[in-house]
TrEMBL record:
This is Rhodanese domain-containing protein. Residues 25-133 form the Rhodanese domain. GO terms for molecular function: protein tyrosine phosphatase activity. It comes from the Eukaryota. One of its GO terms (cellular component) is nucleus.
Amino acid sequence: MSFKPFYRYITGKELAELIKSGKEPLKDYVVVDVRDHDFLGGNIVNCLRSPSEKFEEDLDGLIAKTKDVPRVIFHCALSQQRHSNISQTYAKRRRAEKEAVTDPDAAQPEQAQDEQGILVLRGGFTEFQSAFKDDPELVEKWRKEVWGSGYF
């Protein structure tokens, strides 16, 4: 039995291309920002905010909002630590809820197509804002005093 990771990485460039591709946020993809106090200073346009400190209590609502979205992209400031636990928790809970409502005896020909892509933004918002802060289609509410201060 081989281990299948719960997520794969997406680069900032790939995410920018996805956002600008004409795909519809919250329908074709969703970006979930799990930063806590470090949400200050800007965010990816049309992201859902689900702070890591409240993630467990908000998880059922997040799954309900994203259950039919084919790609869910998580990020924190650097996407080095929080994303792993959060994306794994999300994937496990979503899978458990899906299995609870699925009839195990029923044929499931669409099962392979129903797999949700769980992705993590490589480099997090720190790298993304560095590359795309001047593009209002990608980043909103960007504040120079936060990012120019050396805080991150």
